[in-house]
Amino acid sequence: MINKLTYIESTGVNPYKNLAMEEYLFSHCGEDEAILYLWQNQHTIVIGRNQNAWKECQISRIEEDGAVIARRLSGGGAVFHDLGNLNFTFLVSKENYDLKKQLDVILKAVQKLGIHAEASGRNDILVDGKKFSGNAFHEHRGRRYHHGTLMVNVKLDELNKYLNVSKKKLESKGIASVRSRVTNLLEYNPELTIDALKKALRETFEEVYGYESKEIKETDLDQKEVDTLYDKYSSWEWIYGREFEFQYEVSERFDWGQIDMQFQVDSGMVVDVAVYSDSLKPDVIGQIPEQLKDQKYNNQLMADQIGRLHSEDEQEEKMFRDIEGWIRKVEL
User: What is the pLDDT of residues 248-267, one digit of tens each?
Assistant: First the structure.
């Protein structure tokens, strides 16, 4: 049961430092503690843990404009951050994780500011049917976090400028462009500021959980540990991954997200495989490569290998079965 609320704001706009602080807070979150962490990134494209940076982003344009790419721990798709956006992270133990409660903090904060919003599905928050907040999730060693964006005054044109959105994704959503799906909160409250939103979020955090929060500062964190995590998030290996020359590629979109598989094959055997996805369940995707390495490049045999993967989580089990069924019939 939660009996301690902690509130912290990042004072910087460097995505690698902010993600490092997020992982630090995640690792140090107490068993009966809930942490609300608010942060902003300047001119940044943030991709999900299993995504292919080269496919998701316009790399050359990003570099030309002085923007940066960052990779987060959670799954999901690529998003654009600027200083018109505020990010939030709720960090709790697994037993105290309550998505409805966490979403209530957001919805009530926005309502305080005169805007009626609603949660849609598992990872979007909408106003007038348009998305202003996309959410993603991470779980590890008995802890969970839920984080997301809050678009106050984001430069919407930049969304299309830096991100590649697959035709399959657009077709599945029944939408013509990225921009048509999103909105800024400023359109519904022209007086809204980031500081006012931060204040409302802290107030509703305390109201929903029923305790006063204690604010901590960046200087209260172990800077050596944060610096080590900074080195991880800013590294080429973490952001772009290993270089991978592949001969065969297959892709499909399911109701839980897109999946792309790239294969290196020698003498009919799978020598190596890379799997990318915008799924909100990155651990599922992470289990697939090892199942397929050193197997024959054959539909039925590879599907049989994926058939060995199971989960007690209903959504994860469905993903395994979807992938297994697709591999059985896909044209290799």
Answer: 999 999 999 999 999 999 99
